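Hey L., structure's done. Input below.
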Amino acid sequence: MSKLLAFDLGAESGRAIVGNFDGQHLTLEELHRFANGPVAVFDRLYWDPLRLFAEMQQGLARFAREHGGDLAAIGVDTWGVDYALLDADDALLDNPRNYRDPRTDGMLEAALALVPRAEIFQHTGVQFMKINTLYQVFSQRESPLLQSARTFLMMADLFNFYFTGNKVCEFSNATTTQFYDPRQSAWATALLDQLGLPTHFLPEIVQPGTQVGTLLPTLAAESGLPQVPVIAPATHDTGSAVAAVPAETRDYAYISSGTWSLMGVELDEPLVSDQALQYNFTNEGGVGSTYRFLKNIMGLWLVQECRRTWASEGRDLSYGELTALAQNAAPFAAFIEPDDERFLTPGDMPARIRAFCEETGQAVPRDEGQVIRAVLESLALKYRYVLNNIEAVLGRRLEVIHIVGGGIQNELLCQFTASAAGRPVVAGPLEATAIGNLLLQLIGLGQLGSLADARQVVRRSFAPVAYEPDQTADWDAAYDRFCPLVPSA
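Output:
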């Protein structure tokens, strides 16, 4: 039995997950959970990486107390696009900003005034979103911090540095920056030069499954563990989640469902075409020399922010209670475009949803059930919209949708997705990101030989839930009403 430890950090929480692998099956144990989220100071939104690393150290110590020193490896995954800048002494120059920080307002447009959209896409193959690392860095172009920085690290890479003392960028997360060139397999330094941005601080890029180093002696001694290998999984959480999709062929679309929904397909090569640019798709690095051709969709952030707003007003409803209210609300009353920019930042999400419906001449949802029903139906319809675009670019039909991640706990959304898309949905595994993290550690240790071997372990270890399209509701008519709400429709 091999024991491994996955640190899985998302926008709301982080976990230390123990993986037990007997050569055939993988089982999970949640060891330590801690809160995460943006810290607001004035009009800025920061992450608190030192507190997060302290929580991860607690996870190490707890493993030693409960499992002894029998730990084969450690791996870290996080969200994408956000980064840290270190000075010549390897100290943080500033707390890393949260991708919803307002400093990127207007930055995409300013960058496009210097380098045309088509040229940036040819360099990077990445969809245009103002949260991308490129526009975060561009917002700092006149800041002395950027000029004095000696090392640029994505968030997971920062934690790997704290664990091992080694500074590298892992491939899957590097590709979320929009300054990695997938066809040259290198940083897009020519693009950064055109935008007047420094390149001296960009580190070596390593592939998923690479051993970054070993646990530093001080950390090992403090936690009671040996100097175990620290292996970079797909450190972008979606990359790890997609590695855990239990598919046997490529004839499927996936949705990694959580705060964000990321919907796409797995390809052997990046797809950087005029049509991909037209539909604003992205090419992100995957496992085993693959690329994830996908689209970011706002996701269950919309529900999370609604719940937070209602809780602040004294109506503290669980996600299950909100879903039950939505199930009982009238169908197809109103829709939103989930990716409208007004929904990106924290705030009174129910009010924004009502305003969108009013501005577009629809019935305005009033109570919690109506609001959440509008969100879930709109997400399902946006999935159908993106699926149609993927199939148009690929020139073939995808027969099934695999949904992985925490969002599969919303069974109503899974059913809506199957019905809206007219395709069977296979939901699971729930802990896809942690599972993918652990599987890549096993590949790095040589206990699994390939991504195909890893997915076979998933199929043996975790039973999915299937959803078939509901033929009784008129999702086609709903889709016809939804499409005009999407700007490019």
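The first strand starts at residue 2 and ends at 9. The two ends are 52 Å apart (CA to CA).

-- N.
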